[in-house]
Amino acid sequence: MDQYYQVANYLIEDQLQAMQLIIDVATGASEEDESFLYKIDNDYFERQFLLRLISLATKRSQQTKTKGKLLNHVKKKACIYLFEIRGESVDNIAMVLNISHQEVLAYIDHIQMNFATAQERDNGRPLN
To answer: How far is CA 71 from the centre of its chain?
Structure first.
C-alpha cells in the first residue's frame, strides 16, 4: 500500500487526505469484491486499484475547488505519473482521466518543455 500512498500524496499533496483516499478506495473495492485486496499483487488488480485511486482523487478535487485549478492540477499530475512512471499509452490516459487526447499530449509536451528549460537553466546555455 506504500506505493499507493506515494501516488495519492503526489496527486493531492495532503498526507491526511492521501491516506483517507487509499482507505476509501480499498473499502469501496472490498465492498464490490471481498477478495479484491488479496488480488492486489496481480498486475490487473493493481492497475484497477491505481485507476480507482486516480479517479477518486480527481472527483474529490472537483469538490474542494470550484475554480477548477486543483482539478487541472490533479489531472496534470495523474497524466505525468501514468505516462512517465507507469508507461501508459495516451489512449489509456485519456480514458482514465476522461480528457481528450489533445489535453494528454499538451500535458506531456508541457512536461518536456519544463524539463528542457530546467536543463538550459542548469547548464547556463541554450539547448539549440
So the answer is: 11
CA gap 41, 90 in Å, rounded:
25
Read off the CATH number of the domain in which 37 is found: 1.20.140
What confidence tens digit (pLDDT) does each residue in 66-104 have?
445 555 788 888 898 889 888 989 998 998 888 899 999
* Number of independent structural domains in the chain: 1
Residues 122, 105, 18, 64, CA torsion sign: positive
Q: Is residue 128 part of a domain?
A: no
Separation between Cα atoms, residue 50 and residue 32, nearest integer Å: 16
- Kindly indicate the confidence band of residue 121, based on its pLDDT and cuts at 50, 70 and 90: low
Q: Is the pTM of this model over 0.70?
A: no
Q: Which amino acid is at 99?
A: I
Burial 40-54 (b: 16+ CB within 10 A, else e): eeeeebeebbbbbbb
